[in-house]
Amino acid sequence: MELNKLDINRTKTLIDAAKTISIVTHFNPDADGVGSSVALYHFLKRQNKDVQVVMPNPFPSFIDSFVKDVDMIYASKETKKARVRLMESDIIFGIDFNMVHRVGNHIKDALAESCAAKIYIDHHQEPDLACETMFSFPDACSASEVLAHLLIAISPDAIDKTIADAIYIGLCTDTGSFSYNCNNAETYSLVAYLVSKGVCVDEVHQEIYSTFSENRLRLLGYAISEKLKVFPQYGAAYICLSKEELRQYDFQPGDTEGLVNYCLNLKDINFGCLVTEREKIVRLSFRSKKNTIDTNKFARTYWNGGGHIMASGGTFQGKLQPVINNLEAQIKHLKDFSQQSE
Taking the domain 214-341, which CATH number applies? Predict the structure, then answer.
């Protein structure tokens, strides 16, 4: 990964001159968005900056232990405070999103209208953001990977154990524990570097993958045994969970994390989807195997979404059944989104 030296110097100059800095990630934040936000927070705090993380809404509980001593505003709960913070910032760092609307309705206008210098750190395709500086690398495994290289470029001694732990959870989770989107030797060199800074891989994996609540584990079993629908003739499968079913298992943010990947565990299934109904919206997560289906193109075409070739998402404002009807019709045309045909 080769960062532009002018962009690095510009970022360093902006940081040096700034007093008030805010960090924001995408709505429904995952471990990559949270981890990289936390890592950057600690880095800036050590530069004696007034820094806050503006989190659009709560994140999965399995990340809690990594978010210590972080000054954070939840925009979904303190919307006015979050908007004022963004409007009054000297710099806003946007992490792990490629379009302003991805931060959610509570703060998207404030982010767009703020006169702060905006610096974006991302790894999604086709960014559409107005900013002073952008570090966007679609080939990177995670935003955390991009951030790590930026911090090291700004200050070779930037990363200590606290920052290394936060970066590692982004690397680990956005690659499915290094099972996809991580064929670059540079990624593993970074992991080795983070371990040298104190990351205990065993402990991090235990915290992330072995701290399920009973309800989350039972929801996983129910989803696979009762809600998995397979279309072998199209190489596709999906899992759909209604809001009533989620409520039955006392759904908490993060309880469906990784569930969509079980679709791809089936032989000859190259496309998987998880559909979850919330109170006012239906969310869709798409996954594919390497060199099969372009889920980013699929999500953009049908579901007002996007992301990566092998992992994307979308949304629908409305009832659940039309989503299922449309999705099943779209599955019949998956060949139109084949990577090999492009």
Answer: 3.10.310.30
Burial 199-235 (b: 16+ CB within 10 A, else e): beeeebeebbeeeeeeebeebbeebeeebeeeeeebb
Place of tokens 């579901």: 303
- Predicted TM-score (pTM) of the model is 0.88
Q: What is the pLDDT at residue 342?
A: 47
Angle of helix 295-302 relative to helix 320-331, nearest 10 degrees, comes to 130
Euclidean distance between the first and final Cα of the chain, in Å?
Answer: 26
CA 335/CA 40 separation, integer angstroms? 41
CA gap 223, 262 in Å, rounded = 10
* pLDDT at residue number 340: 64
Place of tokens 């309880």: 255
d(CA 252, CA 254): 6
Alpha helices in the chain (DSSP H): 5-17, 31-45, 79-88, 108-113, 143-154, 161-173, 185-196, 201-209, 214-226, 243-248, 295-302, 320-331
Pairing of strands 72-74, 117-122: unpaired
Q: Which of 308, 332, 97 is nearest to 234 (CA)?
A: 332
User: Is domain 5-208 in CATH 3.90.1640.10, yes or no?
Assistant: yes
Does residue 294 contact residue 314 with C-beta atoms inside 8 Å? no
Query: How many helices (H) and strands (E) are present in the chain, helices listed first?
Result: 12, 12
Q: Is the dihedral of CA 258, 304, 29, 250 positive or negative?
A: negative
Residue ranges covered by each domain of the chain: 5-208, 214-341
To the nearest whole number, what is the mean pLDDT of the chain? 94
